[in-house]
Amino acid sequence: MNGKDLGLLIIRVGIGALFIMHGYPKIMGGSTQWLWLGNQMAAIGITFYPTFWGFMAACSELFGGVLLVLGLGTRFAAFFISCVMFVAFSMHLGQGDAFGVYSHPLALLVVLVGLFFAGPGKLSLDAMMK
């Protein structure tokens, strides 16, 4: 084990846990919550099937968070959660929100893109399965 692998573990577990905590209430919110989430896709020009897209965003956060914590399918999870954060960033920016509002999804997007390229590290189920 080296510092890089420990750092990737800390990032994966920390970010993954945050997305689990954010995704669970969105899943449990049901179709009303999913519709609201899906309507945010209009920020990038997608206006069809908002309930479906909202459900997919909630699933990406919850199940993607679990995958990040485990280090299983890390790049897959990071990609899909990155898409959700891109939409969140675009929505806040498009609404003219202050930097303090849109910087949160932007910061998470940067970390997730970094995880996508760096991979999970040796302290992960992905590495154990190689």
Provide structural commentary:
The protein has one domain (8-120). Helices cover 78% and strands 0% of the residues. The protein is built from 6 helices and no strands. Helix 1 (3-28) packs antiparallel against helix 3, helix 3 packs across helix 4 (74-94) and helix 4 runs antiparallel to helix 5. The model has no long low-confidence stretch (mean pLDDT 97).
What is the residue-averaged pLDDT?
97
Radius of gyration: 15 Å
Tally of alpha and pi helices: 6
Helix/strand/pairing class, anyone? Answer: mainly alpha
Strand content range: under 5%
Largest sheet: none
Shape: globular
Helix content: over 70%
Number of domains: 1
SSE inventory with pairings:
Layout: H1 3-28, H2 30-39, H3 50-70, H4 74-94, H5 99-118, H6 125-128
Brief summary:
The protein is mostly helical and 130 residues long. It has helices at 3-28, 30-39, 50-70, 74-94, 99-118, 125-128. It is built from 6 helices and no strands.
Task: Record keyword descriptors for this entry.
130 residues, 6 helices, 0% strand
